[in-house]
């Protein structure tokens, strides 16, 4: 099956000469959740803006459902729902009217039952007759999500959707995301909450300086780049790692009371057994041990740092 979004050699150079995107290639499959991670200014929002038809590329192509985003703007835009970072809403309109109007803008016939379902899913039903200026920032963020879903899009972009909002909204939104994924909606997520990407995404893309550093299955990425640490709580403090154990990936923790062993998560069994035998031979004894797996955040930090 052809990817629902296909991006080829995409570049974006602004009028001031700043190059926000540098030859990005990316295929996004129908029904997946892709988390796009990167620091501020990495190019995430520019990439989303081009796919959604808000900005034009300097060169390269983007197709959505087989349609070119520049030549076939109406066809591609009708397939996409976008939750932007900014709280851009009509302050003197009601929640019900603004969400219903958004559906009409995309050429969809009125469907009050569907609008009601969205508002209930996002805990907005009790606020449906309130003007947007009467809502809190978190409630306004919910309205943006409702507007993005109002025309039943096949693709949903969530650009930092939970930045600065309460825990309840984050939970509500992820429940909605799971239901959308189950119905076949493709979701592209940018977030500063890397634990959200770790929890929800099928694949992870890392972008920095306008370049896509990698896109990979989340589990495969963590298996390939992830590391583990074995942490040994010692019976007695050590002043230094014994010379005979140098080169074994060992380091001392604070006060010499912990011994830390970094190892490859894919080759853990044989290396741990050998290490424990060497420690016993050196007369080093421990009272407890634990392991720590590298998180997606650790991997992200290492990749972005290496690209600078």
Sequence-ordered SSE layout with sheet pairings:
Layout lengths: L4 E9 L5 E10 L4 E5 L6 H8 L7 E6 L2 E2 L4 H6 L1 E4 L11 H11 L6 H10 L15 H13 L5 E5 L7 H16 L3 E5 L3 H7 L2 E6 L2 E7 H8 L1 E8 L15 E3 L5 E7 L3 H14 L4 E8 L2 H12 L1
Parallel strand pairs: 3-8, 3-9, 6-7, 7-8
Antiparallel strand pairs: 1-2, 1-4, 4-5, 9-10, 11-13, 11-14, 12-13
Helix pairs in contact: 3-5
Folded structure, characterized:
The chain has 308 residues and is α/β, with parallel strands linked by helices. It has 2 domains: 5-222, P-loop containing nucleotide triphosphate hydrolases (Rossmann fold), CATH 3.40.50; 227-294, 2-Layer Sandwich (Alpha-Beta Plaits). The protein is built from 10 helices and 14 strands. The protein has a 6-stranded mixed sheet, with helices on both faces. The longest helix has 16 residues, at 167-182. The mean pLDDT is 85.
Mean pLDDT: 85
Q: At CATH's second level, what is the architecture of the largest domain?
A: 3-Layer(aba) Sandwich
**Approximate helicity band:** 25-40%
Low-confidence stretches: none
Output the number of helix runs: 10
Rg to the nearest angstrom? 24 Å
- Biggest sheet, open or closed, and with what strands and sense? 6 strands, mixed
Q: Secondary-structure element order, as H and E?
A: EEEHEEHEHHHEHEHEEHEEEHEH
How many domains? The number is 2
CATH class of the largest domain: Alpha Beta
Protein name: ABC transporter ATP-binding protein yadG
Keywords: ATP-binding, Nucleotide-binding, Transport
GO molecular function: ATP binding; ATP hydrolysis activity
Domain ABC transporter: 5-234
């Amino acid at each position: 099956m052809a990817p629902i979004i296909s991006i080829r050699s995409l570049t974006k150079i602004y009028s001031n000469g700043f190059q926000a995107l540098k030859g990005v290639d990316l295929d996004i499959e129908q029904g997946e959740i892709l988390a796009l991670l990167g620091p501020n200014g990495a190019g995430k929002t520019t990439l989303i803006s081009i796919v959604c038809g808000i900005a034009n590329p300097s060169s390269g192509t983007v197709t959505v459902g087989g349609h070119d985003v520049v030549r076939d703007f109406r066809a591609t835009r009708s397939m996409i729902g976008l939750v932007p970072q900014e709280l851009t809403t009509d302050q003197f309109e009601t929640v019900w009217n603004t969400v219903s109007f958004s559906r009409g803008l995309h050429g969809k016939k009125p469907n009050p039952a569907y609008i009601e379902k969205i508002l209930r899913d996002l805990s907005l039903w009790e606020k449906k007759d309130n003007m947007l200026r009467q809502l809190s920032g978190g409630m306004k963020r919910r309205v943006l999500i409702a507007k993005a879903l109002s025309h039943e899009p096949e693709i949903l972009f969530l650009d930092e959707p939970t930045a600065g909002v309460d825990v309840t909204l984050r939970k509500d939104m992820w429940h909605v995301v799971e239901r959308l994924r189950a119905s076949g909606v493709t979701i592209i997520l940018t977030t500063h909450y890397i634990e959200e990407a770790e929890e929800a995404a099928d694949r992870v893309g890392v972008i920095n300086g306008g370049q896509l550093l990698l896109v990979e299955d989340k589990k495969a990425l963590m298996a390939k780049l992830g590391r583990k640490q074995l942490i040994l709580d010692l019976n007695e403090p050590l002043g230094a790692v014994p010379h005979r154990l140098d080169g074994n990936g060992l380091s001392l923790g604070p006060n010499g009371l912990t011994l830390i062993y970094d190892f490859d998560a894919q080759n853990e069994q044989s290396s741990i057994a050998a290490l424990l035998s060497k420690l016993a031979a050196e007369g080093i004894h421990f009272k407890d041990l634990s392991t720590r797996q590298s998180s997606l955040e650790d991997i992200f930090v290492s990749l972005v740092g290496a690209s600078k």
